[in-house]
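Hello Y.,

Per our agreement to keep a running log of every chain we model this quarter, I'm adding this entry. I've kept the format consistent with earlier entries: sequence first, then predicted structure.
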Amino acid sequence: MATAKAKKKKSTRKRTRASWRGQLRFGLVTIGVEAVNAVKKEGSDIHFHQLHAACHSRIQYQKVCPIHGPVPNDEIISGYEYGKGRYVEIDPDELDALRSEAERALTIDSFVPEDEIDPIHFDGRKYFLVPESDGREAYMLLAAALRRQGRVGVGQVVFSGKEQLVEVREYDGALVMQMLDYAAEIRGVDEVASDLPTMRVTGKKLELAEALVESSSSEDFDFSKYTDRHRERTKELIEAKLEGREPVAPETEELPEVINLMDALRRSVKSAQSAGGGKSKRRSTKHKTAKRKRA
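Predicted structure for the entry above:
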């Protein structure tokens, strides 16, 4: 019988580079964390480069001083223009010295219901917060408390050289930090009110519109059924050109002729009801964006 101990397998998973490292604070509890981008950019975007049409060489961009020509990065500093062509030089260390220890941390100062923050404030950036080894217990306690209470934390953190308003929520046992736009950064409806219709909507058209929403409603939302079709077709176009084939254009969907708004609504309701087997399911008032594990 073999007595040699089995060798411990090393993880082959590549560690994702952190975008920020610091402390997460709530009350008197402090947890060392690092923020890892929650969105996978690798392989999700197709990038094109600019080429010179005559020789097909790639166009290059250089940082150029109008007096001395191209300048290396180690000779470039930051400056604030306080007058036309007049600058005051600012060193990164000087900016860093302006922040207190508390401002260097992600400090949660309020916990609110998870549907309290209007989605218009989310700026699209989101990061998983990964705890240091000695902060795992406090991390899991906070995640469990947020999940059970149905709340999210709101606070501020200096991130990418700017003080950011953030939301911290629980997601599948982990904490996720989502960046928020400040109220002053959101354009008010009154700024575009002149372009919005002001007529009242009532009567049969409104009933049909509500029936269309009802017929197309469901209890759950499945993100996995949505894919980037344009990206897939772009990949097919690139592969076809590399192989010398003629790219295949997607089939054009022919829509039925619509006479007026009422006709469009009626046909839409009928189509939605047919697709759903004539049954409509009312969505719960609490929007679900993904199926989540509950303790």
